[in-house]
Design goal:
With 314 residues, this protein is an alpha/beta fold. The protein contains 13 helices and nine strands.
Length: 314
Amino acid sequence: MSNRTNFISAVSNLLQDVRKKLRTALDMGLANSLRYLFFKPKQSLWVDLVTDDFVQTSISDVAMWRDFASKASSDSEVFEHFRRYEILRRIVETNDYFQGRQYLSNIFSLADQDETIYPKTLSDLVSEFDSVGSPLCYKYKTLGLASPLALRYLDTALEIKRLFNLKSVDLVVEIGPGFGGLALMNSRLMKVKDYWLIDLPEVVDLCSRFLDEFRTDTTFRDGLGLTSKQSYFDLVISNYAFSEIKRDMQVELAELVLSRSRKGYLVWNNLGETYMGGVTLKEFLSWVPNPRVLSERPLTANGNQIIVWGLDDV
Protein backbone atom coordinates (compact mmCIF):
# COMPACT_ATOMS: atom_id res chain seq x y z
CA MET A 1 0.00 0.00 0.00
CA SER A 2 2.84 2.30 0.87
CA ASN A 3 4.58 1.70 -2.48
CA ARG A 4 1.33 2.38 -4.34
CA THR A 5 0.81 5.62 -2.42
CA ASN A 6 4.37 6.74 -3.14
CA PHE A 7 3.93 5.92 -6.84
CA ILE A 8 0.68 7.88 -7.07
CA SER A 9 2.28 10.82 -5.26
CA ALA A 10 5.29 10.77 -7.59
CA VAL A 11 3.08 10.69 -10.69
CA SER A 12 0.94 13.52 -9.30
CA ASN A 13 4.03 15.66 -8.65
CA LEU A 14 5.35 14.90 -12.13
CA LEU A 15 2.08 15.94 -13.76
CA GLN A 16 1.98 19.15 -11.74
CA ASP A 17 5.53 19.93 -12.86
CA VAL A 18 4.64 19.24 -16.49
CA ARG A 19 1.54 21.45 -16.29
CA LYS A 20 3.60 24.24 -14.72
CA LYS A 21 6.21 24.04 -17.48
CA LEU A 22 3.53 24.01 -20.16
CA ARG A 23 1.88 27.12 -18.68
CA THR A 24 5.29 28.81 -18.58
CA ALA A 25 6.00 27.89 -22.20
CA LEU A 26 2.60 29.17 -23.33
CA ASP A 27 3.12 32.42 -21.46
CA MET A 28 6.58 32.92 -22.99
CA GLY A 29 5.41 31.99 -26.48
CA LEU A 30 6.76 29.28 -28.75
CA ALA A 31 9.69 31.27 -30.15
CA ASN A 32 10.98 32.34 -26.72
CA SER A 33 10.51 28.84 -25.31
CA LEU A 34 12.61 27.45 -28.15
CA ARG A 35 15.27 30.12 -27.59
CA TYR A 36 15.51 29.04 -23.95
CA LEU A 37 15.41 25.34 -24.77
CA PHE A 38 18.17 25.49 -27.39
CA PHE A 39 20.34 28.09 -25.65
CA LYS A 40 23.83 26.62 -25.33
CA PRO A 41 25.49 27.72 -22.09
CA LYS A 42 29.25 27.41 -21.78
CA GLN A 43 30.49 25.08 -19.05
CA SER A 44 28.21 23.62 -16.41
CA LEU A 45 29.58 25.40 -13.37
CA TRP A 46 26.61 25.14 -11.03
CA VAL A 47 28.05 25.93 -7.63
CA ASP A 48 26.78 26.86 -4.19
CA LEU A 49 28.08 30.40 -3.79
CA VAL A 50 27.56 30.40 -0.03
CA THR A 51 29.95 27.88 1.51
CA ASP A 52 32.71 28.26 4.05
CA ASP A 53 35.24 26.82 1.59
CA PHE A 54 35.63 29.87 -0.59
CA VAL A 55 33.65 32.84 0.68
CA GLN A 56 36.17 35.60 1.38
CA THR A 57 35.30 39.27 1.17
CA SER A 58 31.78 38.85 -0.22
CA ILE A 59 29.17 36.35 -1.34
CA SER A 60 30.52 36.39 -4.90
CA ASP A 61 34.23 36.44 -3.97
CA VAL A 62 34.87 32.85 -5.08
CA ALA A 63 37.93 31.47 -6.83
CA MET A 64 35.87 30.28 -9.79
CA TRP A 65 34.46 33.77 -10.39
CA ARG A 66 37.86 35.43 -10.04
CA ASP A 67 39.43 32.93 -12.46
CA PHE A 68 36.64 33.29 -14.97
CA ALA A 69 36.70 37.10 -14.89
CA SER A 70 40.46 37.03 -15.44
CA LYS A 71 40.13 34.57 -18.31
CA ALA A 72 37.27 36.47 -19.97
CA SER A 73 39.15 39.76 -19.85
CA SER A 74 42.35 38.31 -21.34
CA ASP A 75 41.16 35.57 -23.72
CA SER A 76 39.30 36.82 -26.79
CA GLU A 77 37.65 33.46 -27.45
CA VAL A 78 36.18 33.34 -23.95
CA PHE A 79 35.21 37.01 -24.05
CA GLU A 80 33.30 36.53 -27.31
CA HIS A 81 30.73 34.37 -25.50
CA PHE A 82 31.41 35.33 -21.87
CA ARG A 83 27.75 36.01 -21.07
CA ARG A 84 26.93 32.37 -21.83
CA TYR A 85 29.12 30.93 -19.08
CA GLU A 86 27.21 29.46 -16.16
CA ILE A 87 29.37 31.12 -13.49
CA LEU A 88 28.51 34.57 -14.88
CA ARG A 89 24.86 33.60 -15.24
CA ARG A 90 24.80 32.61 -11.57
CA ILE A 91 26.39 35.84 -10.33
CA VAL A 92 25.44 38.61 -12.80
CA GLU A 93 23.11 37.48 -15.58
CA THR A 94 20.47 36.11 -13.18
CA ASN A 95 17.18 37.52 -14.49
CA ASP A 96 14.62 35.47 -16.41
CA TYR A 97 12.19 36.24 -19.23
CA PHE A 98 9.32 37.17 -16.93
CA GLN A 99 11.38 39.59 -14.87
CA GLY A 100 12.53 41.10 -18.15
CA ARG A 101 8.91 41.67 -19.09
CA GLN A 102 8.32 43.53 -15.82
CA TYR A 103 11.45 45.62 -16.35
CA LEU A 104 10.21 46.51 -19.82
CA SER A 105 6.92 47.75 -18.37
CA ASN A 106 8.88 49.93 -15.94
CA ILE A 107 11.05 51.21 -18.79
CA PHE A 108 8.16 52.46 -20.90
CA SER A 109 6.58 54.09 -17.86
CA LEU A 110 9.84 55.89 -17.02
CA ALA A 111 10.50 56.83 -20.66
CA ASP A 112 7.06 58.46 -20.87
CA GLN A 113 8.23 60.85 -18.13
CA ASP A 114 11.45 61.76 -19.96
CA GLU A 115 11.08 63.83 -23.12
CA THR A 116 14.67 63.02 -24.14
CA ILE A 117 13.96 59.30 -24.44
CA TYR A 118 12.36 57.89 -27.59
CA PRO A 119 11.35 54.30 -28.38
CA LYS A 120 14.21 53.95 -30.87
CA THR A 121 16.61 55.18 -28.20
CA LEU A 122 15.53 52.33 -25.93
CA SER A 123 15.88 49.77 -28.69
CA ASP A 124 19.31 51.08 -29.68
CA LEU A 125 20.57 51.01 -26.09
CA VAL A 126 19.48 47.41 -25.61
CA SER A 127 20.86 46.27 -28.97
CA GLU A 128 24.19 47.91 -28.24
CA PHE A 129 24.39 46.31 -24.80
CA ASP A 130 23.55 42.83 -26.12
CA SER A 131 25.96 43.05 -29.06
CA VAL A 132 28.77 41.89 -26.79
CA GLY A 133 29.10 38.54 -25.01
CA SER A 134 26.49 36.45 -26.90
CA PRO A 135 23.77 36.53 -24.20
CA LEU A 136 20.46 34.68 -24.18
CA CYS A 137 17.91 37.10 -25.66
CA TYR A 138 14.13 36.87 -25.85
CA LYS A 139 11.70 38.63 -28.12
CA TYR A 140 9.62 41.22 -26.30
CA LYS A 141 6.62 42.97 -27.77
CA THR A 142 7.18 46.63 -28.70
CA LEU A 143 10.97 46.28 -28.34
CA GLY A 144 12.28 43.17 -30.08
CA LEU A 145 15.16 40.96 -28.98
CA ALA A 146 16.67 41.75 -25.60
CA SER A 147 18.38 40.03 -22.70
CA PRO A 148 16.57 40.39 -19.36
CA LEU A 149 19.76 41.88 -17.92
CA ALA A 150 19.83 44.65 -20.54
CA LEU A 151 16.27 45.53 -19.54
CA ARG A 152 17.11 45.46 -15.85
CA TYR A 153 20.07 47.80 -16.27
CA LEU A 154 18.13 50.14 -18.54
CA ASP A 155 15.30 50.23 -16.02
CA THR A 156 17.76 50.99 -13.20
CA ALA A 157 19.57 53.71 -15.16
CA LEU A 158 16.30 55.41 -16.10
CA GLU A 159 15.13 55.23 -12.47
CA ILE A 160 18.37 56.77 -11.20
CA LYS A 161 18.12 59.56 -13.76
CA ARG A 162 14.48 60.26 -12.77
CA LEU A 163 14.95 60.07 -9.00
CA PHE A 164 17.88 62.46 -8.91
CA ASN A 165 16.94 64.57 -11.94
CA LEU A 166 20.40 64.02 -13.37
CA LYS A 167 21.33 65.09 -16.89
CA SER A 168 25.03 65.34 -16.21
CA VAL A 169 27.25 64.26 -13.33
CA ASP A 170 30.98 64.58 -12.69
CA LEU A 171 31.88 61.74 -10.32
CA VAL A 172 30.07 58.41 -9.97
CA VAL A 173 31.19 55.40 -7.95
CA GLU A 174 29.71 51.94 -8.47
CA ILE A 175 30.37 49.23 -5.88
CA GLY A 176 30.16 45.79 -7.47
CA PRO A 177 29.71 46.68 -11.17
CA GLY A 178 29.34 43.10 -12.48
CA PHE A 179 30.89 43.26 -15.95
CA GLY A 180 30.18 46.98 -16.42
CA GLY A 181 26.66 46.80 -17.87
CA LEU A 182 25.00 49.38 -15.63
CA ALA A 183 28.02 51.65 -16.02
CA LEU A 184 27.48 51.59 -19.78
CA MET A 185 23.76 52.38 -19.46
CA ASN A 186 24.43 55.24 -17.05
CA SER A 187 27.06 56.68 -19.35
CA ARG A 188 24.57 56.64 -22.21
CA LEU A 189 21.65 58.22 -20.33
CA MET A 190 23.62 60.77 -18.30
CA LYS A 191 26.70 62.80 -19.13
CA VAL A 192 29.14 61.19 -16.69
CA LYS A 193 32.67 62.57 -16.57
CA ASP A 194 34.42 60.04 -14.30
CA TYR A 195 32.99 56.65 -13.31
CA TRP A 196 34.85 54.67 -10.63
CA LEU A 197 34.42 50.87 -10.46
CA ILE A 198 35.02 49.16 -7.10
CA ASP A 199 35.34 45.37 -7.14
CA LEU A 200 37.82 42.52 -7.15
CA PRO A 201 40.78 43.33 -9.44
CA GLU A 202 39.89 40.57 -11.90
CA VAL A 203 36.30 41.80 -12.12
CA VAL A 204 37.39 45.38 -12.76
CA ASP A 205 39.58 44.04 -15.58
CA LEU A 206 36.50 42.35 -17.10
CA CYS A 207 34.55 45.61 -16.78
CA SER A 208 37.33 47.46 -18.58
CA ARG A 209 37.37 44.88 -21.38
CA PHE A 210 33.60 45.13 -21.81
CA LEU A 211 33.47 48.94 -21.68
CA ASP A 212 36.37 49.24 -24.13
CA GLU A 213 34.02 47.78 -26.75
CA PHE A 214 32.02 51.02 -26.77
CA ARG A 215 32.75 54.63 -27.51
CA THR A 216 31.69 56.87 -24.65
CA ASP A 217 32.60 60.29 -23.31
CA THR A 218 32.99 58.78 -19.84
CA THR A 219 36.34 57.94 -18.28
CA PHE A 220 36.06 54.65 -16.39
CA ARG A 221 38.52 54.25 -13.54
CA ASP A 222 39.66 51.43 -11.25
CA GLY A 223 38.17 52.13 -7.84
CA LEU A 224 41.13 50.52 -6.09
CA GLY A 225 42.86 53.81 -6.79
CA LEU A 226 40.43 55.78 -4.65
CA THR A 227 41.90 57.46 -1.58
CA SER A 228 40.61 59.57 1.27
CA LYS A 229 41.95 62.60 -0.62
CA GLN A 230 38.84 62.51 -2.81
CA SER A 231 36.63 65.15 -1.19
CA TYR A 232 33.23 64.12 -2.62
CA PHE A 233 31.30 62.05 -5.14
CA ASP A 234 28.10 63.09 -6.86
CA LEU A 235 26.55 59.63 -6.77
CA VAL A 236 27.29 56.16 -5.38
CA ILE A 237 25.54 53.11 -6.83
CA SER A 238 25.44 49.48 -5.77
CA ASN A 239 23.28 46.64 -7.07
CA TYR A 240 23.31 44.28 -4.03
CA ALA A 241 27.12 44.24 -3.78
CA PHE A 242 27.50 46.55 -0.77
CA SER A 243 24.97 44.50 1.20
CA GLU A 244 26.81 41.24 0.32
CA ILE A 245 30.28 42.06 1.67
CA LYS A 246 31.89 41.60 5.07
CA ARG A 247 31.16 44.09 7.80
CA ASP A 248 34.70 45.47 8.04
CA MET A 249 34.65 46.24 4.30
CA GLN A 250 31.23 47.86 4.63
CA VAL A 251 32.58 50.12 7.35
CA GLU A 252 35.64 50.97 5.25
CA LEU A 253 33.59 51.75 2.14
CA ALA A 254 31.09 53.76 4.18
CA GLU A 255 33.92 55.99 5.37
CA LEU A 256 35.76 56.18 2.04
CA VAL A 257 32.80 56.50 -0.34
CA LEU A 258 29.32 56.69 1.17
CA SER A 259 30.12 59.48 3.64
CA ARG A 260 31.48 61.54 0.73
CA SER A 261 28.59 60.84 -1.66
CA ARG A 262 25.96 63.53 -2.09
CA LYS A 263 23.47 61.04 -3.54
CA GLY A 264 23.13 57.29 -3.28
CA TYR A 265 21.22 54.41 -4.89
CA LEU A 266 21.72 51.00 -3.30
CA VAL A 267 19.77 47.81 -3.96
CA TRP A 268 19.88 45.83 -0.72
CA ASN A 269 19.49 42.16 0.17
CA ASN A 270 20.02 40.14 3.35
CA LEU A 271 22.86 37.90 2.16
CA GLY A 272 25.68 39.85 3.77
CA GLU A 273 23.89 40.00 7.11
CA THR A 274 22.99 36.31 6.96
CA TYR A 275 26.26 34.81 5.73
CA MET A 276 29.00 37.41 6.11
CA GLY A 277 28.21 39.09 9.42
CA GLY A 278 27.33 42.28 7.56
CA VAL A 279 25.34 45.22 8.89
CA THR A 280 21.58 45.12 9.13
CA LEU A 281 19.39 47.37 7.01
CA LYS A 282 18.34 49.27 10.14
CA GLU A 283 21.96 49.96 11.04
CA PHE A 284 22.84 50.98 7.50
CA LEU A 285 20.02 53.50 7.38
CA SER A 286 21.66 55.31 10.29
CA TRP A 287 24.82 55.75 8.22
CA VAL A 288 23.35 57.92 5.44
CA PRO A 289 21.49 61.26 5.57
CA ASN A 290 17.71 61.30 5.10
CA PRO A 291 17.45 57.84 3.54
CA ARG A 292 14.32 56.71 1.76
CA VAL A 293 13.45 53.01 1.36
CA LEU A 294 11.77 52.03 -1.89
CA SER A 295 10.32 48.74 -3.11
CA GLU A 296 12.24 46.67 -5.62
CA ARG A 297 10.11 46.13 -8.73
CA PRO A 298 10.06 43.37 -9.73
CA LEU A 299 10.96 41.85 -6.37
CA THR A 300 13.79 39.42 -7.16
CA ALA A 301 14.10 37.98 -3.63
CA ASN A 302 12.22 38.35 -0.36
CA GLY A 303 13.54 41.20 1.76
CA ASN A 304 15.15 43.15 -1.08
CA GLN A 305 14.87 46.94 -0.81
CA ILE A 306 16.22 50.02 -2.57
CA ILE A 307 17.80 52.72 -0.42
CA VAL A 308 18.27 56.21 -1.80
CA TRP A 309 19.46 59.49 -0.34
CA GLY A 310 20.16 62.97 -1.63
CA LEU A 311 16.79 63.42 -3.32
CA ASP A 312 16.04 67.02 -4.22
CA ASP A 313 12.61 66.93 -2.56
CA VAL A 314 13.92 65.86 0.86
